[in-house]
Amino acid sequence: MQRTISLEPGKYYHLYTRGNNKETLFRQHDNYHYFLQLYRKHVTPYTDTFAYCLLPNHVHFLVRIKEEDALRKKSIVDDSNTLVSVQRQLGHLLNAYAKTINNRYERVGRLFQHRFGRKEVTSEAYFTRLVYYIHFNPQHHSLIKDFRNWPYSSYHSILSNSKTVLQREEVLAWFGGRESYKQFHEGNAAGLESIAPIIEEDEL
């Protein structure tokens, strides 16, 4: 079982969760986009997001929790300041999505097996390999022959010049630039082999 660790300001984490009993979370194309809309509403104000991938029955995000100043919420009642709980915001995301899916598809019961699991990312090597692992996940699970064709990940957004909430320039800098990012993804299967056992022992 995944050991619960606190989400601390300024630290990097791999966040993940899956459907209850591996149930499908995203039945239609617009379900994926709705989940990301809720993520932007509930989570992105308090985190920096570097990579993500949504798969039919599970999701991955690589984030950094913002510093305390960005997490402080001014009380409208008095002058006290409190820190926003990112864990609670993640819960709001899952609850809002589950409520909509249950209503839309006339289902009842728990949609997600558990709240977001998390593992701290503590090195540059872990960071780059985790980005690759997250993007490669659809191919890893035999959902598609080439992960680059999966439409519900951040792989192409990192390479694009279009507006994004992702920390695009920082991701590219970690890899040493755009071409190095592409080359790492195109030919670094060893990166997956070295990190997959660490990730998957508790994840899915």
Folded structure, characterized:
InterPro entries: Transposase_17, Transposase_17_sf. This is Transposase. It comes from Pontibacter ruber. A four-stranded antiparallel sheet has the order 2-3-1-6. The protein is globular and about 45 Å long. It has one domain: Transposase IS200-like (Alpha-Beta Plaits, 2-Layer Sandwich). About 2% of the residues have low confidence. Helix 1 packs antiparallel against helix 3 and helix 4 crosses helix 8. It is built from eight helices and six strands; from the N terminus they run E-H-E-E-H-E-E-H-E-H-H-H-H-H. Strand 4 and strand 5 form a beta hairpin. It is an alpha+beta fold.
Indicate the topology.
Elements: E1 12-18, H1 29-42, E2 47-55, E3 58-65, H2 68-71, E4 72-74, E5 81-83, H3 86-105, E6 117-121, H4 124-140, H5 155-159, H6 168-175, H7 178-187, H8 189-200
Antiparallel strand pairs: 1-3, 1-6, 2-3, 4-5
Structural class based on helices, strands and sheet pairing: alpha+beta
> What is the spatial order of strands in the main beta sheet?
2-3-1-6
Largest sheet: 4 strands, antiparallel
Instruction: Give a count of the beta strands, DSSP E runs of length 2 or more.
Output: 6
Taking pLDDT < 50 over at least 5 consecutive residues as the criterion, the unreliable ranges are: 74-78
What attributes does this structure have?
single chain; 204 residues; alpha+beta; Alpha-Beta Plaits; four-stranded antiparallel beta sheet; two-stranded antiparallel sheet; 8 helices; 6 strands; 44% helix; Transposase; Transposase_17_sf; Transposase_17
